[in-house]
């Protein structure tokens, strides 16, 4: 669904920026709609009428983040595409504000089903954006047929999110490149070939 423009779009942007601040500072449980309205410079009734609660605000925030994320890379090789993806994830998580926001969103998803669904939807959208990198790599013969794009990109980002959540290790370009290289090696070895594909070949 296309979002309306003009004042409505500006109000949404202001409110979602305020929600980011609230999440970072107070977590999902600490979000107060009145305070969100004050931060955003809009009427409290506007926030209550359109969103109604913290979980709905977080869901809309994640929808906005998915819609405005950078498009996938097209480098011509899976190695280049995975490195581009890893570096994008790494830059995002290493950013002081964005890293804190993702920690807050992940924490919210642990305690609220609506937030968890919104987070799952966010990542499904981002994986769908990048999945053609893998399907094109299969067509080029870089990785085996049946390689699961979702598993490949989970393998790329998981080490970087581990660093974010645990605070162990720096999230830098070297870490991103290691994550991409490890996922690429596993993909080439057939680690991410789906069970269905494996069964078909053995029959």
From TrEMBL:
Residues 32-51 bind DNA. The keyword Transcription regulation applies. Residues 9-69 form the HTH tetR-type domain. InterPro entries: Homeodomain-like_sf, HTH-type_TetR-like_transc_reg, HTH_TetR, Tet_transcr_reg_TetR-rel_C_sf, TetR_C. Keywords: DNA-binding, Transcription, Transcription regulation. This is AcrR family transcriptional regulator. GO terms for molecular function: DNA-binding transcription factor activity; transcription cis-regulatory region binding. The keyword DNA-binding applies.
